[in-house]
Structure formats: structure tokens, C-alpha cells
Design a protein that fits this description.
- It is built from ten helices and three strands, in the order αααααααααβββα.
- It has about 220 residues and is mainly alpha-helical.
- It folds into two domains: about 5-100; about 120-205, no CATH class.
- The N and C termini lie far apart (about 45 Å).
Length: about 220
């Protein structure tokens, strides 16, 4: 990969600049799934910015993207995509002027419902742990109780959507996997939810899941 300067980067169309930026990101990232999410964000951005020179992007583009994209995706998803765009612009020294005027979309102040305490969750787990079929259903129900994720969404949870090694841990619900595209979002995990996701991942790997596209759980919708 040939190194280019910020001045050269800003003369490229978005898709070429994004490709170069992503290659640089890969050199320093130790988390393949993080790169996969950036690839997903860039694919969505390309639907709007393909062919647009990086130096031509301005605050108006950001505001219009928020308006249009919000019709098909949640605020958190839109913010992540535009954060990716901002990082690409930073690499070209083009972000400072836009940053003064940019405001991310507001996201709901969400707190996971407290259905059971951690101790009660553990006690319940010990009761059902003797039956593998009960265990996976329990984990899924517990995860639903401790997050905004629904059973139908958990059915489509893939390894690449799980980020347990960050703070806070999260799972990503992409808009291509839910019936209502407004629910595409990043879901934070509390202590109990993170523990259940860890158990689901462990079970999936024991059953042969290894590729980022492999699914983790099958639960009733």
C-alpha cells in the first residue's frame, strides 16, 4: 500500500479515501470484528457519498445524511456511521471546520430493566443448568430481560456482532436482520447480559461456530 499525504487523501472520492483509511486502520487494530463493523458503516456511507470528493464534504452533507438515514436506521447506528466518516475526514485534515457545527443525533437514555438480581439469575441458572435445552432458552430470556434485544433479533445474532472485550461490552443489531429497521442499534450489556452472551458464545463455539458470520443461538420468536 502506497502511503499518501492528507493533502492527497482529500482529493480522492469518498470510496477510495475510505478504502485507504480502512487499510491503515487494519494495521493497528487487533479486533477483526471492529474492522468488520467499519466495513459495514462504510458500505452504508457509500450509498450516499460514492463519487463525492472528500474535500467536497461539508456540514450540510452530515445534516442531510442524518435526516435521510434516520428514516431507515436508529440514532445510534447513524451516529456510528457518521463517526466513521469523521475519522476519515480527520485523516485528511478536513474535520475541524465541520466539527464546530456537527451534533450527533440524540439517543434515548436507556437503562436495562431490573427483573432479577445477579444472585437470583445465578440461582435460576443452577436450576436449569442440568438440561442443555433449558439453559440456552434461559440465557436468551435473561438476555432479553437485561437488554432491549428481542428474541427474534437474538435468532440472527452472529459472532461478528458481539463485542465483549470492550467497555462497556455490546452487541450490534444490524438493520438488515430486523423487521423494523428503526431498531438497528448498538446494545450495551450490563454485567448479567454480558455473562449470558459469553455463555451463548461459548456454547456456539462448542457446536462448531468459528467464522464471524456464524450464528450463535436459535430461540423462539
Amino acid at each position: 500500500m502506497k502511503a499518501i499525504t492528507p493533502l492527497q487523501l482529500r482529493t480522492l472520492p469518498f470510496e477510495e479515501a475510505a478504502k485507504y483509511w480502512l487499510e491503515i486502520k487494519k494495521l493497528y487494530s487487533k479486533k477483526p470484528r471492529t474492522i468488520e463493523m467499519y466495513e459495514w458503516y462504510i458500505r452504508n456511507l457509500e450509498k450516499v457519498f460514492a463519487g463525492v470528493l472528500l474535500a467536497q464534504i461539508h456540514i450540510g452533507h452530515f445534516m442531510e445524511y442524518q435526516r435521510q438515514r434516520r428514516l431507515s436506521a436508529g440514532a445510534s447506528c447513524v451516529n456510528h456511521e457518521l463517526n466513521t466518516l469523521s475519522q476519515i475526514l480527520k485523516a485528511a485534515d478536513l474535520w475541524d471546520l465541520i466539527e464546530k457545527h456537527y451534533k450527533p443525533l440524540p439517543t434515548p437514555n436507556w437503562t436495562p430493566p431490573k427483573v432479577l438480581t445477579a444472585e437470583e439469575e445465578e440461582k435460576f441458572f443452577r436450576v436449569v443448568s442440568g438440561n442443555p435445552d433449558w439453559s440456552v432458552v434461559y440465557w436468551a430470556v435473561s438476555l432479553t430481560n437485561n437488554t432491549s434485544a428481542m428474541g427474534v433479533e437474538l435468532r440472527y445474532l452472529q459472532l461478528k456482532h458481539i463485542f465483549l472485550d470492550q467497555e462497556p461490552p455490546t452487541i450490534h443489531i444490524p438493520d438488515s436482520k430486523v423487521k423494523n429497521e428503526f431498531r438497528a442499534r448498538v446494545v450495551p450489556l450490563n454485567v448479567v447480559a454480558a455473562k449470558q452472551v459469553g455463555r451463548i458464545v461459548e456454547r456456539a463455539k462448542k457446536l462448531g461456530a468459528w467464522h464471524p458470520d456464524h450464528y450463535c443461538v436459535s430461540v423462539p420468536s
